[in-house]
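Dear support,

I submitted the protein below through the web form. The confirmation email said the job was done, but the results page showed an empty box. After a refresh the structure appeared. I'm attaching both so you can tell me whether what I see now is the final result or a partial one.
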Amino acid sequence: MSNQEPSESEACCTPLVREPLTEDWAGDLSRMFKALGDPVRLRLLSLVASHEGGEACVCDISDSFDLSQPTISHHLKVLRQAGLLDCERRGTWVYYWVIPAALQQLSAVLLVEGTSVSVADACAEVTA
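What the results page shows now:
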């Protein structure tokens, strides 16, 4: 993700349906969406985000997958490089947490103004 963050007005007021994205912001968002395009990475992000305390040790989430530790580490690295996760080594383990601003950017750009769809309604429409 580039060091150039969208301005406050871009982040909260520029959904796709109203105004075209800038080239830089589109590049940053596409890296995040591309990282989430893999089901394993999407599940990893969900596991970390929903873990008690908002952070998870790699040892807590590895058992959720039938994948090798190097493969899980690769997927976590891709999520970090996309700016969706951050981490810290504590002893022999690495702890991960979601970067809230990244999720806010993703949701803000997809927001359709003037609609009031609940999460439950949106999920029901996708699975129907």
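Response: this is the final, complete result; the empty box was a page-load delay. Confidence is low (pLDDT under 50) at residues 1-13.
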